[in-house]
Amino acid sequence: MGRTDALRHVVSERKDAVLRRSLEVVSGPQGMFVSGPEAEVHSFAERIIDESPGEVFSQAAPMRLIPSVPGPKLLRSRGGVFLKVAPPARTLLAARGVIPSSDGIFRTTIRGANAVRSAHLHWVTSALSAKNIVNAHVAFSVMALRTAVRDTEAAVEAVGGTADQVLALAQASRAGDVFGHHRALSRLQRTVDATGVLASADWEAVASLGPMLEVTVERLRAHTRRTLDTVPADASISDRAKYLSQASDENRLGETLQLLLVAEESVYLWQQLRAERVRAEEPEHLEATIASAEALLKEHSDRDSEIVRALREQLAGLGSIRVRDVHRWNSTIRLRRSIAGLHDIVEDFSHSRHGQLMGWLDDEDPALGAALAEMRRKAAGAGKVARTRIGQVGHHLQALKPGSHRADVGEA
Q: Organism's domain of life (predicted)?
């Protein structure tokens, strides 16, 4: 090997080494695909989570979904994640150079094992072909569906054996086994991820579930709104405490919202499978199919946002303590505890639907959130006071028992 060839070989090896340490980011309105060496991808995702002042959600993405980035073949068989960052946090991270400042395709090189944590990254813009732009659009839409709901395992556990009762209350008992549908769709989606193929027989087995699940979602939402709408805001404090207790114990508000999460994720799983089917059999209709799935996702987000905001407003209004109610100590404690419990239920639902990421409460009156937080604090404080008083009463009763005083004196 001559000197020139040797030099070319060294340059080529160094170039390959740099590429092997590089990250690729495909950035869009819905989030970012990050691909590269698994260790570097993991470190980069951790850095974004650590430095972000807002909510961040990270989920592993199947390599078949990650848009193809132009470059050598050695870039194509690596790990990847999909990151969703709250818009204000995304702006701040871009200003710091942690993520690209605009949508598109970018590449950066990691210099050393710890550079990703200690230095600004130099993002280099790449170009996508027209075909890859379409594929990127599809990939973003699929991951938006895939990451719209989280913690459904916890939701299934929370609902437990009350699913049939909740569906009956919501007048959705004809929907069948919501958990069974969710399991079937999840299992089929995992098969498609592993093989890249959706068999005709498999699709035909679930094709009819989509419209049925949509009806279930709507009825569960309606039941959620009805549950608190029936509580009269001008009722006495004892009646409000009773009605709110019924909302939780009899109308199953918490289980309804958890079951809504499972039903919604089932809808999104079905939409992903539908897109896969159209891509394979009728690719000319894929763009329209993706557009309809995006519209559905936005509609669901808007409707769930309305529910969360309405429930928070209702709880804040129902928790007001009037002058004439001040002496009703027990009713006040029960009311505040019920509101604190229902507030936690609504917060859990919003968290599972990425409410903070979606900015659901960005324009909410700060006084409303402060009022709910104060009621929750007082509910916790009331429990401590009640336990202290019970302990004092018990001690006092013990002191009044015959012979108890003599025993104390004797011990002295």
A: Bacteria
Distances (CA, A) of 351 to 20, 357, 359: 37, 9, 11
What does the alpha-carbon distance between residue 31 and residue 52 come to, in Å, rounded to a whole number?
Answer: 14
Which tokens is 400 given? 């009044």
Evaluate whether 252 touches 341 at the Cβ level (below 8 Å): no
At a CB cut-off of 8 Å and minimum separation 6, what does 310 contact? 225, 228
Provide the CB-side half-sphere exposure for 67 (13 A, CA). Answer: 33
Whose structure tokens read 């809504």? 260
* Separation of alpha carbons 80 and 186, rounded Å: 21
**pLDDT recorded at residue 134:** 75
pLDDT of residue 331: 78
User: Within a domain: residue 405?
Assistant: no
Determine the Cα–Cα distance for residues 135 and 141; give it in Å rounded to an integer.
10
**Cβ-contact 227, 124 below 8 angstroms:** no
Does this model's pTM top 0.85?
A: no
Could you tell me if 235 and 319 are in contact, meaning their C-beta atoms sit under 8 angstroms apart? Answer: no
**What b/e sequence results for 12-35 when a residue is b if at least 16 CB atoms lie within 10 Å of its CB, and e otherwise?**
eeeeeeeebbbbbbbbbebbbbbb
Kindly report, residue by residue over 372-408, the tens digit of the pLDDT: 888 888 777 654 433 333 344 344 434 434 444 433 3
| Four-CA torsion 234, 237, 239, 242, nearest 10 degrees | 130
- Per-residue pLDDT averaged across 140-153, rounded? 91
- Same domain membership, residue 57 and residue 111: yes
Are residues 155 and 107 both part of a single domain?
A: no
Domain region containing 162: 151-393
Beta strand segments in 31-150, E: 31-36, 56-60, 79-85, 104-109, 124-126
Q: Are 307 and 315 in contact (CB under 8 A)?
A: no
CA-nearest of 340, 228, 209, 199 to 271 is 209
Mean per-residue pLDDT of the chain = 79
- Strands 56-60 and 79-85 come out as antiparallel
